[in-house]
Amino acid sequence: MSNLQKKTDVILIGAGIMSATLGSLLKELAPEWDIKVFEKLSKPGEESSNEWNNAGTGHAALCELNYTSEKEDGSIDISKAISINEQFQVSRQFWSYLVNSNLIRNPENFIRPIPHMSLVHGEDNVAFLKKRFKALSSIPLFQGMEYSDSPEKLKKWVPLIMEGRTSNEPIAATKIDSGTDVNFGALTRMLFDHLKSNDVEIHYNQSVEDIKRSSDGCWDVKVINLVTGQVEHHRSKFVFIGGGGGSLPLLQKTGIPESKHIGGFPVSGLFMVCNNPEVVAQHHAKVYGKAKVGAPPMSVPHLDTRYIDNKKSLLFGPFAGFSPKFLKTGSNLDLIGSVKPNNVLTMLAAGAKEMSLTKYLIQQVMLTKEQRLEELREFIPNAKAEDWDLVVAGQRVQVIKDTAAGKGTLQFGTEVITSADGSVAALLGASPGASTAVNVMLEIINKSFKEQMLVWEPKIKEMIPSYGVSLMENPDLLHKVHTSTARTLGLSEREPVFS
Ligand SMILES: Cc1cc2nc3c(=O)[nH]c(=O)nc-3n(C[C@H](O)[C@H](O)[C@H](O)COP(=O)(O)OP(=O)(O)OC[C@H]3O[C@@H](n4cnc5c(N)ncnc54)[C@H](O)[C@@H]3O)c2cc1C
Fold first, then answer.
1. 3 state SS of 457
2. Cβ neighbours of residue 298 under 8 Å, at least 6 residues apart?
3. pLDDT, average across residues 428-454
4. What are phi and psi of 490, to 5 degrees?
């Protein structure tokens, strides 16, 4: 049975953090607009945004070594770290606005303060970390960062990691107390509760099967009800494809020129989780290491204190792996189904170039529990098998596209694809992901609603005082927004002093 529904202003596909964020921004900017959401699962935030499917790091480049690279002259390129930190400040401001306006409550249910640390071993890595620390710590965005290569000091910072460590290899760490643990699953659910109580129609168990442009320039979205089998067609002036790993196939269905010559490379993930309260109590930080030579950036190992459902636990990983699925709940045919005549050469070029990555990922899938424990013991020398279980994390679909670097180049960042007229936008890629959702969705709003921007800008500035301003160049404003968001979000344990 097919059924044509009335036209709506906005359709959001997928109920993850991205749609939740875009919907919440649009509800503030244009409260009178009709918004519909279609989600194939029965609840919001069940795929990558779920708290057990990602690492919950509020990515602000405080500890992730892959956001700062060493240049040929030996100096450290910190431009990406600055950009990611600025984007996280945007998220903090929007979340604070929502809390201050009573649109969401109890921020401790989705964000907690936790020190962010980088930890490295070996002379070269220690030298790199020292240079990185020097480059970052003088910048207001990273103020409060400390460095130490003293084992005594490190024992105080991370006793669990230092206990039982016998090697004489040099070891060093940086620590900054203004880091965060973010429960993106809880935040997604809160935002959808808020949207639901503000007349947004949210349809669960409804899978979007097709998106076609209709003669009046609107988009016709074909939706199948997975419970009843009923097919409906919904029309909208604007469609956001926020399907996570499922975005690429939907983008391809739009047929827009911008969707061509793009492919996806799925990477699966596993975490080890510690539920022994005695071990959990001995660690209080997110500690990021350095990716092994040849390993992709998304497999940087880290040991994280997490707060999920008011319970503290430890997560270690992720162990990357290969699976042809684009979503955790996806199909083994996803990868092959995404190969189209327009992207087959791009995909083949990537396949040829990334043989070593594919081999690496397959090797990772084959690791035994004991081999994974060996990797964990590089962080916690005394780790015991019985304290740790494996959990399957979310899928990340890395974008493959033709760039100046060559045909079929694998991208590790987030990509926004928008049609020339802005009427359809899709979010692809994974990193830095949920932490930068607000900035990325503002980018989409800017491209897709150019005509409204003049009217909307004052409201955006009310919600995000630093909108359009570089905090790096405005330490006074940084101090103001950092302190006020820390207070609102309950992150004020130890506020850094800005100079
Ligand atoms: C292992 C791992 C670790 C990560 N760690 C971090 C981290 O520490 N910090 C961070 O900021 N980010 C992290 N990320 C990235 C972050 O999780 C993602 O960027 C973010 O959750 C993506 O949100 P989304 O809304 O785009 O996708 P999702 O949360 O995946 O939501 C997409 C939704 O769309 C639905 N959908 C798909 N296709 C259809 C369709 N055809 N019809 C209807 N519905 C559909 C899906 O069911 C799903 O609910 C991590 C990701 C992974 C996998």
1. helix
2. 267, 269, 318, 320, 396, 398, 412, 430, 431
3. 94
4. 70, 35
All structural domains of the chain with their residue ranges: 262-412
Give CA–CA dist 447/439, Å, rounded: 13
Residue nearest to atom 35 of ligand 1 (CA): 14
Per-residue confidence band for 496, with pLDDT thresholds at 50, 70 and 90 = very low
- Give this prediction's pTM: 0.95
CA dihedral 76, 82, 83, 88 (to 10 degrees): 140
Cα→Cα distances 341→181, 244, 248, 261, Å: 43, 23, 15, 9
Q: Say yes or no: CB of residue 207 within 6 Å of ligand 1.
A: yes
Model pLDDT for residues 193-233, shown as the tens digit of each residue: 999 999 999 999 999 999 999 988 899 999 999 999 999 99
Show contacts of 410-416: CB within 8 Å, 24+ apart: 410/265, 410/350, 410/353, 410/354, 410/357, 412/296, 412/297, 412/298, 414/440, 416/440, 416/443, 416/444, 416/447
Give the span between the Cα atoms of 465 and 484, in whole angstroms. 11
Mutate to test the pocket of ligand 1, among 12, 50, 54 (most ligand atoms within 8 A of CB): 54
